[in-house]
């Protein structure tokens, strides 16, 4: 696999996913060392001149007016990491931690943080040698950046904290020894540079955005299968409808549906069974498409943040300026990740409504709960209950975090973003959506069996087969949970992405 080249400028969300999940190797671009040396020279010059520079010759936060003696400046950086490593809760999964390390390295590689090249090189070494710092998932307020989680990350670089290597948990020092690394001795400003940024929320956001793009396509695929077996009226997806209200996402989803339904012998004409469909069928492109447009905005913001300098202070070698400002504030990311949770929740919301139409005989014309011998068998009755529970839960998680703020650091940091909470919520909604779509697909395939899978469109038959390779026909009641989980996992596995490519072709997101 070709290495991911870190320049500070060109990292994509797909790159983040590949490094975090696929363990793609990482390299620093040649020009990075020169950029880092220029800003580091400014730090050493200011130290020689004994200038007062926040975080270099002073304390942090409320202590920014406390000048630190020269002999204590290394100790200051270590104390910063130790005192700020106050996160709690379950550790982040390995992909999230790997994404955090990649993004922190990329932010430092821009050359505005005043660190030596060795600091960035050591982050890259952790990635390439499989060292995964133990980072508890709760405790960041999202300004001044993700201080607590990034402190846990940085501790491992100096041989403290804890880390996983090959699935085994070690102290930071032992983890480094396992891979032939030695602890890094931090110089002035470097501890602050490692923790002052938005890389926890952005890492979570990047991974969520990548999966959300796949689930956007799966939502269209699941909806198309449901639409067929419920004998919907595809006239609602005519291109003329979307030409007069040209939202890009709706145009994309409508085009997907037209492709997926082409050749179906189940869809109907207006007046054949009904004049028009219920909203959960007729308005699929409008609802799915609004989410697609929202997701595109989220993607742009998160990708921009992946390539941003989020440190404080920032050193500008071209002008000689050192500026204390607020690029560490997570509000830009917090707002869009709240938005992402809403987008995902609405895709799940309308999917559950389609599932209800599938299992409800008054709405589907099919056997109750999609089972032939009802009464003795409950069929897929409780599959809809589960979807309803997940959708209800999503409505709680969709409440925005970014509208909350609790002042910190003795009111010096008097407005915070809660962006990492927004990011963690988005992942909860994402996982719920995946299961809700799996339930719809499961019910859609069962309905197809009762209707006649040979009547489905070619792409509908392919989706039916995808489900049936993982979940057998429901003849008699069995434990349903493993079926849901197996199908939900398949949606984001390589075979799920291959199926999207097959049925959507070049139209896939």
Automatic annotation (TrEMBL):
One of its GO terms (biological process) is L-histidine catabolic process to glutamate and formate. Its main location: cytoplasm. GO terms for cellular component: cytoplasm. The keyword Oxidoreductase does not apply. The modification 2,3-didehydroalanine (Ser) is found at residue 144. Gene3D superfamilies: Fumarase/aspartase (Central domain), Fumarase/aspartase (N-terminal domain). Contains an active site 4-methylidene-imidazol-5-one (MIO), which is formed autocatalytically by cyclization and dehydration of residues Ala-Ser-Gly. It catalyses: L-histidine = trans-urocanate + NH4(+). Its EC number is 4.3.1.3. It is found in: Cytoplasm. Keywords: Cytoplasm, Histidine metabolism, Lyase. It is an enzyme of class 4 (lyase). Pathway: Amino-acid degradation; L-histidine degradation into L-glutamate; N-formimidoyl-L-glutamate from L-histidine: step 1/3. InterPro entries: Aromatic_Lyase (IPR001106), Fumarase/histidase_N (IPR024083), HutH (IPR005921), L-Aspartase-like (IPR008948), Phe/His_NH3-lyase_AS (IPR022313). GO terms for molecular function: histidine ammonia-lyase activity. The keyword Transcription does not apply. Belongs to the PAL/histidase family. This is Histidine ammonia-lyase.
